[in-house]
Amino acid sequence: MKVSLDLLRSFLAVHRSGSITAAAELLGLAQPTVTAQLRALEEAVGRPLFDRLPRGVRPTPAGDELARRVAEPLDRLDTVLADDRDEAYPRTVFLGGPAEFLAVRALPALAGLVADGLELRVTAGLPDALLDDLAVGRLDLAVTSVRPRRRGLTAEPLYDEEFVLVGAPVWADRLAGPVTPAALRDVPLLAYAEEAPILRRWWRTVFDARLTRTPSLVVADLRAVLAAVVAGAGVSVLPRYLCRDELAAGTVRALLTPPVPPLNTLFLAARPVAAGRREVQAVRRALLAAAPD
């Protein structure tokens, strides 16, 4: 039985994305073309490869088995065909992640590669949207606070965020005694989301208490939250990397230092089809090398 590589590439794109529409977008083909290719491949192998759902498709056992057998050879072949040894970074790298981490940690770590000729496109977003974009090929790498459990994605630990309860000196001086939920009762709380997940986690893990208050200020950017803290609007819980310079300068202070500070692991997620490319490997190495700092 002879099957063309185009049929297998389309099959693998559908298998990884879970959608004929998304696969067609990724491949730069019309949706009817991908549908016809899948039909031709199913006729060639003599069994259905996907169950059609109201939204998307789900691979049959035969589809999963075929994907397991062809994914690695196709990924290697595509890497070889795309590799231009005359260029240090043959293709553009598409990177996604949390806006604050990208701005403060990732982009400075990648500045040398960009100066050396790497073309980089960066997208900020939340974990679910980033993983969706990664799965369908709109991203090559994604920094995410959620370890992906999706078919066709890999992940490795990148960075452990340490969280700090911070306030401007004016609030630190007012909270001269033990910092407890009762002591913070009348202090404005600043958060990046209405649900205040970072604050709630701090209260739960450090104070062993449930946060029942709503924030006084909500702004969907932790850098803006930090600016409000520096200006004296109230207190917040922020990643240490974000407020490291302000802590060193004394414009904000750590209000409490627990024996075991809350941590949050960020993961570097990738698609195997992209992970083997020379320029993607360079970005991965640079991010991992910078993480301990």
UniProtKB/TrEMBL annotation:
Residue ranges of domain HTH lysR-type in the record: 3-60
Pfam family, one: HTH_1
InterPro entries listed in its UniProt record: LysR_HTH_N, LysR_subst-bd, WH-like_DNA-bd_sf, WH_DNA-bd_sf
GO MF annotation list: DNA-binding transcription factor activity; transcription cis-regulatory region binding
Keyword Glycosyltransferase found: no
Keywords associated with the record: DNA-binding, Transcription, Transcription regulation
Superkingdom field: Bacteria
Entry's family note: Belongs to the LysR transcriptional regulatory family.
PANTHER family per UniProt: HTH-TYPE TRANSCRIPTIONAL REGULATOR, HTH-TYPE TRANSCRIPTIONAL REGULATOR CYSL
Name of the featured protein: DNA-binding transcriptional regulator, LysR family
Organism: Micromonospora mirobrigensis
